[in-house]
Specification:
By secondary structure, this protein is mainly alpha-helical. Helix content is 65%, strand content 0%.
Amino acid sequence: MGSPYTAYWDPLTVQEHYNYTRGADERRGSPLSDPVSVLIVIVCSLVVVENLLVLVAVWRNQKLHSAMYVFLGNLAASDLLAGVAFLANTLLSGKHTLVLTPVTWFIREGSAFAALAASVFSLLAIAIERHVALAQVKPYRRGGGGRMVLLISACWVVALAVAGLPALGWNCLGRLQACSIVLPLYAKDYVVFVVSVFTVILGTIVAIYAHIYCVARSSHAERAGAQSLVLLKTVTIVLGAFIICWLPAFVVLLLDAACGRFACPVLAQASYFFAFATLNSAVNPLIYTLRSRDMRREILRLLCCWGMLGRGHRAQHCRQPLRSSSSPEPCTHKHDLPTAPIMTTACATSV
Protein backbone atom coordinates (compact mmCIF):
# COMPACT_ATOMS: atom_id res chain seq x y z
CA MET A 1 0.00 0.00 0.00
CA GLY A 2 1.41 3.41 -1.03
CA SER A 3 2.05 6.37 1.22
CA PRO A 4 -0.97 8.59 1.91
CA TYR A 5 1.16 11.52 0.76
CA THR A 6 1.55 10.11 -2.76
CA ALA A 7 -1.49 12.06 -3.92
CA TYR A 8 0.23 15.30 -2.87
CA TRP A 9 2.29 15.17 -6.06
CA ASP A 10 -0.45 14.09 -8.47
CA PRO A 11 -1.37 17.01 -10.78
CA LEU A 12 -4.76 15.42 -11.52
CA THR A 13 -5.84 15.54 -7.87
CA VAL A 14 -6.57 19.29 -7.87
CA GLN A 15 -8.63 19.01 -11.07
CA GLU A 16 -10.59 16.09 -9.60
CA HIS A 17 -11.48 18.07 -6.48
CA TYR A 18 -12.48 21.20 -8.39
CA ASN A 19 -14.65 19.21 -10.78
CA TYR A 20 -16.39 17.52 -7.85
CA THR A 21 -17.05 20.61 -5.74
CA ARG A 22 -17.61 23.23 -8.42
CA GLY A 23 -18.43 21.33 -11.59
CA ALA A 24 -16.75 21.11 -14.94
CA ASP A 25 -17.89 24.62 -15.89
CA GLU A 26 -15.54 26.22 -13.35
CA ARG A 27 -13.85 29.30 -14.81
CA ARG A 28 -10.53 28.38 -16.35
CA GLY A 29 -9.52 31.56 -18.13
CA SER A 30 -6.62 33.86 -17.41
CA PRO A 31 -6.99 35.66 -14.06
CA LEU A 32 -6.10 39.01 -15.66
CA SER A 33 -9.00 38.67 -18.09
CA ASP A 34 -11.38 39.28 -15.19
CA PRO A 35 -11.82 42.99 -14.31
CA VAL A 36 -12.40 42.11 -10.66
CA SER A 37 -9.12 40.18 -10.55
CA VAL A 38 -7.33 43.17 -12.04
CA LEU A 39 -8.85 45.36 -9.32
CA ILE A 40 -7.70 42.87 -6.67
CA VAL A 41 -4.17 43.00 -8.09
CA ILE A 42 -4.21 46.81 -7.85
CA VAL A 43 -5.51 46.76 -4.27
CA CYS A 44 -2.91 44.17 -3.22
CA SER A 45 -0.16 46.28 -4.79
CA LEU A 46 -1.41 49.26 -2.78
CA VAL A 47 -1.37 47.13 0.38
CA VAL A 48 2.26 46.16 -0.27
CA VAL A 49 3.44 49.72 -0.94
CA GLU A 50 1.48 51.16 1.98
CA ASN A 51 2.80 48.73 4.56
CA LEU A 52 6.33 48.84 3.15
CA LEU A 53 6.27 52.60 3.66
CA VAL A 54 5.23 52.08 7.29
CA LEU A 55 8.05 49.59 7.88
CA VAL A 56 10.63 51.96 6.42
CA ALA A 57 9.30 54.81 8.56
CA VAL A 58 9.50 52.73 11.75
CA TRP A 59 13.01 51.56 10.88
CA ARG A 60 14.37 55.04 10.10
CA ASN A 61 13.01 57.03 13.03
CA GLN A 62 14.48 56.01 16.38
CA LYS A 63 11.57 57.60 18.23
CA LEU A 64 9.35 55.00 16.56
CA HIS A 65 11.33 52.14 18.16
CA SER A 66 9.09 52.08 21.23
CA ALA A 67 6.96 49.06 22.12
CA MET A 68 3.81 50.32 20.43
CA TYR A 69 5.56 51.05 17.15
CA VAL A 70 7.34 47.70 17.22
CA PHE A 71 3.92 46.05 17.33
CA LEU A 72 2.74 48.33 14.54
CA GLY A 73 5.76 47.28 12.51
CA ASN A 74 4.85 43.65 13.09
CA LEU A 75 1.30 44.37 11.97
CA ALA A 76 2.61 46.15 8.87
CA ALA A 77 4.89 43.17 8.09
CA SER A 78 2.01 40.70 8.35
CA ASP A 79 -0.25 42.95 6.28
CA LEU A 80 2.48 43.33 3.67
CA LEU A 81 2.79 39.55 3.43
CA ALA A 82 -0.99 39.31 3.21
CA GLY A 83 -0.92 41.61 0.20
CA VAL A 84 1.87 39.61 -1.44
CA ALA A 85 0.20 36.27 -0.72
CA PHE A 86 -3.21 37.32 -2.00
CA LEU A 87 -1.59 38.91 -5.06
CA ALA A 88 0.17 35.62 -5.84
CA ASN A 89 -3.05 33.73 -5.12
CA THR A 90 -4.94 35.85 -7.65
CA LEU A 91 -2.28 35.57 -10.35
CA LEU A 92 -2.14 31.77 -9.89
CA SER A 93 -5.92 31.33 -10.05
CA GLY A 94 -8.12 30.52 -13.06
CA LYS A 95 -6.52 28.23 -15.58
CA HIS A 96 -3.31 28.09 -13.52
CA THR A 97 -5.11 26.36 -10.64
CA LEU A 98 -5.69 23.14 -12.55
CA VAL A 99 -1.99 22.61 -13.27
CA LEU A 100 -1.03 22.79 -9.60
CA THR A 101 -0.19 19.74 -7.53
CA PRO A 102 -1.74 19.49 -4.06
CA VAL A 103 1.62 20.56 -2.58
CA THR A 104 1.78 23.77 -4.59
CA TRP A 105 -1.95 24.34 -3.97
CA PHE A 106 -1.41 24.04 -0.21
CA ILE A 107 1.47 26.51 -0.47
CA ARG A 108 -0.66 28.96 -2.45
CA GLU A 109 -3.62 28.85 -0.09
CA GLY A 110 -1.57 28.31 3.06
CA SER A 111 0.57 31.39 2.50
CA ALA A 112 -2.55 33.54 2.22
CA PHE A 113 -4.04 31.93 5.33
CA ALA A 114 -0.79 32.38 7.27
CA ALA A 115 -0.40 36.03 6.29
CA LEU A 116 -4.00 36.92 7.06
CA ALA A 117 -3.89 34.98 10.32
CA ALA A 118 -0.68 36.76 11.33
CA SER A 119 -2.37 40.08 10.61
CA VAL A 120 -5.31 39.18 12.85
CA PHE A 121 -3.03 37.88 15.62
CA SER A 122 -1.04 41.10 15.36
CA LEU A 123 -4.24 43.06 15.94
CA LEU A 124 -4.78 41.00 19.05
CA ALA A 125 -1.20 41.66 20.19
CA ILE A 126 -1.68 45.39 19.70
CA ALA A 127 -4.91 45.28 21.71
CA ILE A 128 -3.06 43.52 24.54
CA GLU A 129 -0.20 46.04 24.41
CA ARG A 130 -2.63 48.97 24.46
CA HIS A 131 -4.39 47.44 27.45
CA VAL A 132 -1.12 47.08 29.35
CA ALA A 133 0.02 50.57 28.37
CA LEU A 134 -3.25 52.12 29.54
CA ALA A 135 -3.22 50.16 32.79
CA GLN A 136 0.33 51.29 33.57
CA VAL A 137 -0.09 54.76 32.05
CA LYS A 138 3.33 54.29 30.47
CA PRO A 139 4.98 52.06 27.86
CA TYR A 140 6.88 48.89 28.62
CA ARG A 141 9.92 49.15 30.83
CA ARG A 142 13.26 47.79 29.70
CA GLY A 143 12.29 44.38 31.01
CA GLY A 144 9.36 44.26 28.62
CA GLY A 145 11.50 43.55 25.58
CA GLY A 146 11.30 39.83 26.20
CA ARG A 147 7.51 39.99 26.41
CA MET A 148 7.36 41.83 23.10
CA VAL A 149 9.55 39.24 21.38
CA LEU A 150 7.51 36.42 22.90
CA LEU A 151 4.19 37.95 21.83
CA ILE A 152 5.33 38.72 18.30
CA SER A 153 6.90 35.27 17.91
CA ALA A 154 3.69 33.67 19.13
CA CYS A 155 1.75 35.56 16.45
CA TRP A 156 3.80 34.03 13.67
CA VAL A 157 4.18 30.55 15.17
CA VAL A 158 0.44 30.17 15.72
CA ALA A 159 -0.36 31.64 12.29
CA LEU A 160 2.02 29.24 10.53
CA ALA A 161 0.72 26.31 12.58
CA VAL A 162 -2.92 27.05 11.74
CA ALA A 163 -2.15 27.54 8.04
CA GLY A 164 0.05 24.44 7.83
CA LEU A 165 -2.44 21.95 9.27
CA PRO A 166 -3.96 20.97 5.88
CA ALA A 167 -0.54 20.24 4.38
CA LEU A 168 0.25 18.08 7.41
CA GLY A 169 -2.82 15.92 6.84
CA TRP A 170 -5.95 17.82 7.88
CA ASN A 171 -7.39 17.87 4.37
CA CYS A 172 -9.94 15.98 2.30
CA LEU A 173 -7.68 14.14 -0.14
CA GLY A 174 -9.40 10.85 -0.83
CA ARG A 175 -12.60 12.08 0.90
CA LEU A 176 -14.41 14.20 -1.67
CA GLN A 177 -17.65 14.30 0.33
CA ALA A 178 -15.82 16.07 3.18
CA CYS A 179 -14.33 18.77 0.94
CA SER A 180 -14.94 22.48 1.26
CA ILE A 181 -16.57 24.14 -1.74
CA VAL A 182 -14.67 27.40 -1.46
CA LEU A 183 -11.34 25.64 -0.86
CA PRO A 184 -11.75 22.23 -2.55
CA LEU A 185 -8.73 20.53 -0.96
CA TYR A 186 -9.56 21.68 2.58
CA ALA A 187 -11.80 19.62 4.82
CA LYS A 188 -14.99 21.28 6.03
CA ASP A 189 -14.15 20.55 9.65
CA TYR A 190 -10.88 22.44 9.18
CA VAL A 191 -12.83 25.41 7.81
CA VAL A 192 -15.08 25.30 10.89
CA PHE A 193 -11.98 25.19 13.08
CA VAL A 194 -10.51 28.28 11.38
CA VAL A 195 -13.78 30.20 11.72
CA SER A 196 -13.94 29.22 15.39
CA VAL A 197 -10.37 30.45 16.01
CA PHE A 198 -11.05 33.82 14.39
CA THR A 199 -14.34 34.12 16.25
CA VAL A 200 -12.56 33.54 19.55
CA ILE A 201 -9.97 36.16 18.58
CA LEU A 202 -12.72 38.63 17.70
CA GLY A 203 -14.43 37.99 21.02
CA THR A 204 -11.13 38.45 22.84
CA ILE A 205 -10.44 41.75 21.10
CA VAL A 206 -13.94 42.97 21.92
CA ALA A 207 -13.44 42.02 25.58
CA ILE A 208 -10.06 43.78 25.76
CA TYR A 209 -11.39 46.92 24.12
CA ALA A 210 -14.43 46.90 26.40
CA HIS A 211 -12.13 46.77 29.41
CA ILE A 212 -10.03 49.58 27.94
CA TYR A 213 -13.19 51.63 27.62
CA CYS A 214 -14.06 51.00 31.26
CA VAL A 215 -10.56 51.99 32.38
CA ALA A 216 -10.64 55.12 30.24
CA ARG A 217 -13.89 56.15 31.92
CA SER A 218 -12.48 55.60 35.39
CA SER A 219 -10.57 58.04 37.56
CA HIS A 220 -7.40 56.16 36.63
CA ALA A 221 -7.67 57.51 33.12
CA GLU A 222 -7.58 61.10 34.37
CA ARG A 223 -3.88 60.65 35.06
CA ALA A 224 -3.36 59.39 31.55
CA GLY A 225 -4.73 62.62 30.11
CA ALA A 226 -5.76 63.12 26.52
CA GLN A 227 -3.76 60.08 25.42
CA SER A 228 -6.43 57.79 26.86
CA LEU A 229 -9.18 59.53 24.90
CA VAL A 230 -7.19 59.31 21.67
CA LEU A 231 -6.54 55.63 22.37
CA LEU A 232 -10.21 54.96 23.00
CA LYS A 233 -11.21 56.61 19.72
CA THR A 234 -8.53 54.68 17.79
CA VAL A 235 -9.58 51.40 19.38
CA THR A 236 -13.22 52.01 18.41
CA ILE A 237 -12.27 52.68 14.78
CA VAL A 238 -10.04 49.60 14.65
CA LEU A 239 -12.72 47.34 16.08
CA GLY A 240 -15.29 48.62 13.59
CA ALA A 241 -12.93 48.14 10.65
CA PHE A 242 -12.04 44.64 11.78
CA ILE A 243 -15.70 43.58 12.02
CA ILE A 244 -16.70 45.22 8.72
CA CYS A 245 -13.85 43.64 6.77
CA TRP A 246 -13.93 40.14 8.25
CA LEU A 247 -17.60 39.49 8.97
CA PRO A 248 -18.56 38.75 5.31
CA ALA A 249 -15.71 36.23 5.01
CA PHE A 250 -16.77 34.57 8.26
CA VAL A 251 -20.34 34.23 6.97
CA VAL A 252 -19.15 32.71 3.69
CA LEU A 253 -16.96 30.18 5.49
CA LEU A 254 -19.84 29.18 7.75
CA LEU A 255 -22.07 28.74 4.70
CA ASP A 256 -19.33 26.68 3.09
CA ALA A 257 -19.30 24.30 6.05
CA ALA A 258 -23.10 24.03 6.11
CA CYS A 259 -24.00 23.86 2.42
CA GLY A 260 -23.84 20.87 0.10
CA ARG A 261 -22.63 20.90 -3.48
CA PHE A 262 -24.30 23.58 -5.64
CA ALA A 263 -26.69 24.41 -2.77
CA CYS A 264 -25.33 27.93 -2.10
CA PRO A 265 -24.55 29.85 -5.33
CA VAL A 266 -22.97 32.67 -3.34
CA LEU A 267 -20.01 30.43 -2.58
CA ALA A 268 -18.94 30.74 -6.21
CA GLN A 269 -18.16 34.40 -5.46
CA ALA A 270 -16.23 33.69 -2.26
CA SER A 271 -13.01 35.18 -3.63
CA TYR A 272 -14.61 38.62 -3.58
CA PHE A 273 -15.38 38.30 0.12
CA PHE A 274 -11.80 37.30 0.88
CA ALA A 275 -10.56 40.21 -1.22
CA PHE A 276 -12.76 42.50 0.87
CA ALA A 277 -11.21 41.02 4.03
CA THR A 278 -7.78 41.85 2.60
CA LEU A 279 -8.81 45.51 2.63
CA ASN A 280 -8.25 45.34 6.38
CA SER A 281 -4.54 45.15 5.58
CA ALA A 282 -4.85 48.46 3.73
CA VAL A 283 -6.99 50.11 6.40
CA ASN A 284 -4.78 49.14 9.34
CA PRO A 285 -1.88 51.49 8.47
CA LEU A 286 -4.33 54.36 8.03
CA ILE A 287 -5.89 53.77 11.43
CA TYR A 288 -2.82 52.92 13.48
CA THR A 289 -0.18 55.15 11.91
CA LEU A 290 -1.82 58.18 10.31
CA ARG A 291 -3.42 58.99 13.69
CA SER A 292 0.11 59.23 15.10
CA ARG A 293 1.84 62.56 14.47
CA ASP A 294 5.29 60.97 14.72
CA MET A 295 4.47 58.33 12.15
CA ARG A 296 2.69 60.82 9.91
CA ARG A 297 5.66 63.18 9.93
CA GLU A 298 8.09 60.40 9.05
CA ILE A 299 5.89 59.10 6.22
CA LEU A 300 5.43 62.59 4.77
CA ARG A 301 9.16 63.12 5.03
CA LEU A 302 9.80 59.89 3.12
CA LEU A 303 7.33 60.81 0.40
CA CYS A 304 8.85 64.27 0.14
CA CYS A 305 12.39 62.97 -0.09
CA TRP A 306 11.49 60.29 -2.64
CA GLY A 307 9.80 62.97 -4.72
CA MET A 308 12.91 65.16 -4.53
CA LEU A 309 15.14 62.28 -5.58
CA GLY A 310 12.78 61.47 -8.44
CA ARG A 311 13.08 65.03 -9.69
CA GLY A 312 16.87 64.88 -9.57
CA HIS A 313 17.29 67.23 -6.61
CA ARG A 314 20.15 66.86 -4.16
CA ALA A 315 18.73 65.27 -1.06
CA GLN A 316 21.56 63.62 0.84
CA HIS A 317 19.87 64.56 4.11
CA CYS A 318 16.85 62.51 3.07
CA ARG A 319 18.94 59.38 3.42
CA GLN A 320 19.78 60.27 7.02
CA PRO A 321 17.42 58.53 9.50
CA LEU A 322 15.78 60.80 12.05
CA ARG A 323 16.50 60.23 15.73
CA SER A 324 13.13 61.68 16.66
CA SER A 325 10.17 63.42 15.14
CA SER A 326 11.44 66.66 16.63
CA SER A 327 14.44 66.58 14.34
CA PRO A 328 14.50 69.28 11.67
CA GLU A 329 12.38 68.34 8.69
CA PRO A 330 14.58 68.13 5.56
CA CYS A 331 12.01 70.01 3.50
CA THR A 332 11.43 72.84 6.00
CA HIS A 333 13.35 76.08 5.61
CA LYS A 334 15.13 77.63 8.59
CA HIS A 335 12.94 80.72 8.58
CA ASP A 336 9.72 78.69 8.91
CA LEU A 337 7.74 79.34 12.04
CA PRO A 338 7.10 76.47 14.49
CA THR A 339 3.46 76.51 13.48
CA ALA A 340 4.25 76.11 9.79
CA PRO A 341 3.08 72.95 8.01
CA ILE A 342 5.36 69.96 8.05
CA MET A 343 6.04 70.29 4.34
CA THR A 344 6.58 73.53 2.45
CA THR A 345 4.98 74.35 -0.87
CA ALA A 346 8.04 73.25 -2.78
CA CYS A 347 8.10 69.97 -0.98
CA ALA A 348 4.39 69.40 -1.36
CA THR A 349 4.70 69.60 -5.12
CA SER A 350 7.15 66.72 -5.02
CA VAL A 351 4.74 64.35 -3.29
